[in-house]
């Protein structure tokens, strides 16, 4: 069979992973490198030289001609600069292939064109990339040939983080230190390291490339800016987990194979709720690797789509009125010897360590709900949060029946004495086995849901990096653990002290727990009564980065300096304003060059037909006239909305950059965009389809 795939052979075949290193590196060098990877020991240049040489030899065998420091600047996408392995020609005119330890561990990159939020003036262009040896290098094959990609962090000349990875690695150190302290208090002397584990479920849309090419809005902005709902949306729920069509299956097969080659554990795939929407989830991994793998996965999803004559849309809300796409971030804390700190066991009420961890997390999320919300802020997510199937913009925690009940016992009596058990689910069919239900059902409306032995943060946008939310999760948990340990380490009677602390946290932070329907409008009201922040827009969320509380938190754990936080806030405002500006200009472009001319053509046809029919004699032309009137009226509304939008957009550059400009874009530009969309979508429902200048929603999502 030609398309037989031996997955075990394929998996990781293009990765310089542990097995390859053990096989190819001299024993001593391998051991030294492992120490760096596992214990964070500094890597000497001699060791790096040997590793680099072997890595290069291996990469060349895999067909690589170039190497690249692969990094994640704050643009939202990955960046890379390619260098061939060749050295200057020898006297005989030949070149050698070389790659030194220095080239492996440090790269210099002209950083002036990356967002820095004022951290660097453009003339101070130096930026450095540094090898993150905890995330393996890999050889990527594409039209450029083979490229050895080295995952790196990206910092400025003065050491400030200019990327997503650096703070993530810093936050991993913070949570490791504080988790170990907590474990030691409970008598654990064996675990050496605690790592946040993350599995990021990736949602995406697939549409036909030919149709994509006819939609300027998709090309320039990643989402549709106009589009009337087709007669059918997702109301029948017939796409979710439906049979996957052959074209899509062939695509998924290739995506999986490409992922596997690069060591990405693509595991679960299915159709999602909206037509043309799908999901791919890997097996969870240490968070820095999960973050790198998610970037690789997004790239593969896009690349393979073009090979199949399709386009993969990663935007959070490509189509209004149907589900948006997210990236559910499943997060837990795991020790090197396999203990999951978030595993409640069968009887959570007796698991004091778990209850402490849990109540600390409640405290962390309650205290820093604004930061967690901010971590999912992304221009596209503004369209999604609170929309179909997306969690609302209010942060709350879903615990479920079992843990909710344990928490209630703690709050009311101070002690939890029992845990609700899962009951038997009777199928009612003799030939089917009855089975045990989980003690807790799931809640898909909660932004932060406990799901058995992990938390699922469902707010992250499909296009966004998962780094930001995990930086926040790791750091706020580290802070809560630290504050608990500070008190418990001083306690004379540990048992009493921990009991009191759990109760105190449970009572103080119970307002963050919400097990009901997060989509219900009543919840927004209830959340307000509870004093929980509701930050519907990215622009509302950004200030959370620079509050006194946030600065204290991130500085204490050396995750961000105040300057870095301020620069990040600046970058966010800048990105927001630029993105809205591009969307507005795209709307103007489409309205002027495509929609208005099309409607004029159609109304001309109608008018001609009125005259022609009238000439024939006494025939009823009321329908033509009615349509003509309606379309002409809407055309007028469209034209003035378009003029208003142009006017509003032309003023953007006059507004001072930063927060002020972002607020203007949100309040004024976005509103003007909506006012233009409404009449155009109405026109789409009236105008002859053959004259409408672009594929409809129906064409895009039902005919892939
Ligand atoms: P669902 O869509 O039902 O939530 P999926 O199987 O699509 O579930 O995704 C669940 C994700 O959670 C997977 O990436 C999985 O590897 C990950 N996961 C499972 N257990 C853990 C854990 N202990 N810590 C972190 N992630 C986990
Ligand atoms: Mg899933």
Automatic annotation (TrEMBL):
Domain of life: Bacteria
Residue ranges annotated for the GS catalytic domain, each copy included: 164-595
InterPro entries: Gln-synt_C (IPR040577), Gln_synt_N (IPR008147), Gln_synth/guanido_kin_cat_dom (IPR014746), Gln_synth_cat_dom (IPR008146), Gln_synth_gly_rich_site (IPR027303), GS_Type-3 (IPR052725), GSIII_N (IPR022147)
Protein name: Uncharacterized protein related to glutamine synthetase
Recorded family membership: Belongs to the glutamine synthetase family.
Gene3D superfamilies: 1.20.120.1560, Glutamine synthetase/guanido kinase, catalytic domain (3.30.590.10)
Organism: Blautia obeum A2-162
Any one Gene Ontology molecular-function term assigned to this protein's record: glutamine synthetase activity
GO annotation, biological process: glutamine biosynthetic process
EC number: 6.3.1.2
Pfam families found in the cross-reference section: Gln-synt_C, Gln-synt_C-ter, GSIII_N
SMART domains, per database record: Gln-synt_C (SM01230)
Enzyme kind, highest EC tier: ligase
């Amino acid at each position: 069979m030609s398309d037989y795939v031996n997955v075990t052979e394929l998996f990781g075949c293009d990765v310089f992973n542990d097995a390859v290193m053990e096989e190819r590196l001299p024993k001593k060098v391998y051991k030294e490198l492992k120490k760096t990877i596992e214990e964070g020991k500094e890597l000497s240049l001699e060791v790096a030289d040997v590793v680099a040489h072997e890595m290069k030899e291996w990469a060349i065998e895999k067909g690589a001609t170039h190497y690249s420091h692969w990094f994640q600047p704050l643009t939202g996408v990955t960046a890379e600069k390619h260098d061939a392995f060749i050295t200057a020609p020898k006297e005989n005119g030949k070149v050698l292939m070389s790659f030194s330890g220095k080239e492996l561990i440090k790269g210099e990159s002209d950083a002036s064109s990356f967002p820095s939020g004022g951290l660097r003036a453009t003339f101070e262009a130096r930026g450095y990339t540094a090898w993150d040896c905890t995330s393996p290098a890999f050889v990527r094959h594409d039209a450029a040939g083979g490229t050895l990609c080295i995952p790196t962090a990206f910092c400025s000349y003065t050491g400030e983080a200019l990327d997503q990875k650096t703070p993530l690695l810093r936050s991993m150190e913070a949570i490791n230190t504080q988790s170990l302290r907590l474990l030691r208090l409970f008598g654990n002397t064996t675990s050496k390291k605690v790592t946040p584990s993350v599995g990021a479920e990736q949602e995406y849309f697939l549409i036909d490339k030919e149709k994509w090419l006819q939609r300027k809005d998709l090309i320039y902005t990643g989402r549709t800016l106009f589009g009337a709902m087709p007669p059918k949306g997702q109301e029948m729920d017939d796409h979710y987990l439906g049979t996957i069509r052959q074209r899509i299956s062939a695509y998924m097969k290739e995506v999986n194979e490409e992922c596997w080659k690069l060591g990405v554990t693509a595991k679960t795939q299915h159709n999602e709720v909206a037509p043309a929407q799908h999901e791919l989830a890997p097996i969870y991994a240490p968070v820095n690797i999960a973050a790198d793998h998610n970037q690789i996965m997004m790239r593969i999803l896009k690349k393979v789509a073009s090979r199949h004559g399709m386009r993969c849309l990663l935007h959070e809300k490509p189509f209004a009125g149907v589900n948006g796409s997210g990236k559910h971030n499943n997060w837990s804390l795991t020790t090197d010897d396999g203990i999951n700190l978030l595993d409640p066991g069968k009887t959570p009420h007796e698991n004091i360590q778990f209850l402490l961890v849990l109540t600390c997390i409640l405290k962390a999320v309650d205290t820093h709900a604004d930061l967690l919300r901010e971590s999912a802020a992304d221009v596209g997510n503004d369209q999604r949060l609170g929309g179909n199937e997306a969690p609302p913009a209010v942060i709350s925690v879903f615990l479920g029946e079992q843990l909710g009940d344990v928490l209630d016992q703690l709050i009311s009596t101070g002690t939890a004495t029992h845990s609700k058990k899962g009951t038997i689910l009777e199928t009612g069919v003799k030939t089917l086995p009855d089975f045990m239900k989980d003690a807790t059902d799931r809640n898909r409306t909660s932004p932060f849901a406990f799901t058995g032995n992990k938390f699922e943060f469902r707010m992250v946008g499909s296009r966004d990096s998962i780094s930001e939310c995990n930086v926040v999760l790791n750091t706020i948990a580290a802070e809560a653990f630290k504050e608990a340990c500070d008190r418990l380490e001083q306690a004379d009677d540990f048992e009493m002290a921990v009991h009191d602390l759990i109760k105190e946290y449970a009572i103080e932070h119970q307002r963050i727990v919400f097990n009901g329907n997060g989509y219900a409008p009543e919840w927004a009201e209830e959340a307000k009564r509870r004093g929980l922040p509701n930050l519907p827009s990215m622009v509302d969320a950004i200030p959370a980065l620079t509050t006194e509380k946030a600065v204290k938190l991130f500085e204490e754990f050396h995750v961000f300096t105040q300057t870095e936080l301020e620069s990040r806030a600046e970058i966010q405002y800048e990105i927001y304003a630029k993105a809205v500006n591009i969307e507005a200009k795209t709307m103007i472009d489409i309205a002027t060059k495509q929609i208005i001319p099309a409607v004029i053509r159609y109304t001309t046809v109608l008018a001609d037909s009125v005259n022609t029919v009238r000439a024939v004699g006494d025939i009823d032309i009321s329908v033509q006239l009615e349509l003509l009137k309606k379309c002409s009226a809407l055309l007028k509304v469209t034209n003035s909305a378009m003029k208003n939008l142009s006017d509003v957009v032309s003023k953007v550059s006059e507004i001072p950059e930063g927060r002020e400009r972002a607020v203007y874009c949100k309040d004024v530009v976005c509103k003007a965009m909506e006012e233009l969309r409404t009449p155009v979508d109405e026109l789409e429902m009236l105008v002859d389809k053959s004259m409408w200048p672009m594929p409809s929603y129906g064409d895009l999502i039902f005919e892939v």
